[in-house]
Amino acid sequence: MCSIVFCLGCSKDTSHPYLVIPERITSQLGIPVTLYPISEEVPNPRYDWQCPKHHIITKYSLHCRGHQEKLETDDCILYDCDGLQHSLFQEFFVFPRLVTIIRLLNTHFPCSIVEGYCCPNHLAFSSAQGNHLSKKHLIGAAALLSLPDSISLDHIKRILPALYTQKQVLPFIKEFQKSEVMLENGEFSLKIQKMDGYSYLTIEILYDLENNIPVI
Predict the structure, then answer these.
(1) What are the domain boundaries of the chain?
(2) Predicted TM-score of the model (pTM)
(3) Burial of 179 (0-12, 13-18, 19+ CB in 10 A)
């Protein structure tokens, strides 16, 4: 009678495990003997595609950032939302242009999303904590990013023309007005704040080019 036993081969960084199938036979002396085939390492497969150098930014990268915390005030106890959980199971809107802007920044500078879309519960909780976020977070028209402290508005301004490759863009959109902490044109604004060794960048959409209407 023969039986089959499955064993896993050794796994290393440059190889992957495969099945070794031993077979049990009976010797001339009537003693069971198990014969194993020669084990050889199989190299990992190679693929033509390249891994991205930066995190891929999508609408879901801007999910609500609630952490189910609570905050006691003089009047009541406030509870934060469950953030990622309700963002996964409930539909939320983010302006596609906001995603495009963050993608462009992310290809030039390491970006970390601090706040994106905010549900009303999370926005109220953040305000009670002293983090005064724009109400545009409620409609997916604002984001707060963390950048390296060395990044300035001058660095950012140099890469923004890449957003406007179409000739039909409204004339007032392309002209950027810059102050010490603010950079804006007719479509969106960028506000930078240096704090705790980082540059915090607030992005707000001002005008919806797709529907040709202001974003209020």
Answers:
(1) 7-43, 59-214
(2) 0.74
(3) exposed
